[in-house]
Specification:
The strands form 3 sheets. Strands 7-8-9-12-14-15 form a 6-stranded mixed sheet. The protein is globular, with a radius of gyration of 18 Å. It has 224 residues and is an alpha+beta fold. The mean pLDDT is 95. Helix content is 17%, strand content 48%. Helix 2 runs parallel beside helix 3. The chain contains 3 helices and 15 strands.
Length: 224
């Protein structure tokens, strides 16, 4: 996925989860944050950020915060982009795809992607990962009851003959492995382990990230 109209700026503060104050070309701007997670380890005062300028003159905010520099690494923070990144990568995950439907309802949930191949019917739930420490990436960065619900619904789908995947899209490069964030949400970690033992496939992929783009690079180990 590629972005246009990218500007470099400096992060100043985040008054709430939806907006950030950034300095761009010497001027303070109120910017939309396309990630409602905490991201406290990323959005530190003075951090270099990359923002997309909107072409819509009627918007309240001119810019969307897309990515942030963390040491040697650029981390994409756009939680809305991970599904598109996953869709682009599908042909490398499955052979002989005959049908793809984003945002597919099943039971009491709506999964991110539904795929049919010549032999299988597959549900995929996509999770964007931005939390990293010493090369280890974790999800979630805040408790997610909705995430637990999705895992249980995927397990149910497996019992009804579907294949099911949880796909963690790591929005950065040069990481070692993925693991659930047991300290932040033990129930999510426990449920992920349980469903993985009962047919739900857990995969994680790191991405090549630039200020203007994000694409899946390769699969990384999962430590559950």
């Amino acid at each position: 996925m590629k972005y246009s109209n990218i500007y470099k700026g400096t992060f100043l503060q985040r008054p709430n989860r939806f907006i950030a104050i950034c300095e761009i070309d010497g001027k303070e701007e109120v910017c939309h944050v396309k990630n409602t997670g905490r991201c406290r380890e990323l959005l530190t005062k003075g951090a270099t950020v990359y923002l997309q300028k909107s072409n819509n003159p009627n918007r309240k905010t001119k810019y969307d915060l897309i990515a942030v520099q963390k040491g040697e690494r650029i981390v994409n923070m756009d939680s809305q982009i991970v599904n598109y990144v996953a869709l682009e990568y599908l042909p490398q995950m499955f052979e002989n795809i005959t049908y793809v439907k984003p945002e597919c309802k099943y039971g009491n949930s709506r999964f991110d992607i539904y795929v049919e191949t010549e032999t299988d019917k597959i549900f995929i739930e996509v999770k964007g990962v931005t939390l990293e420490n010493d090369g280890v990436v974790r999800f979630p960065d805040a408790p997610t009851e909705r995430g637990v619900k999705h895992l249980k619904e995927l397990q149910k789908a497996v019992t009804e003959g579907y294949k099911a995947y949880v796909m963690f899209v790591v929005q950065m490069d040069n990481v070692q492995y993925f693991e659930p964030n047991k300290e932040t949400h033990p129930e999510f970690a426990e449920t992920l382990k349980a469903v993985s033992e009962n047919g739900v496939v857990i995969v994680a992929y790191q991405c090549k990230v630039t200020p203007e783009s994000i694409t899946i690079k390769n699969q990384i180990p999962v430590n559950i």
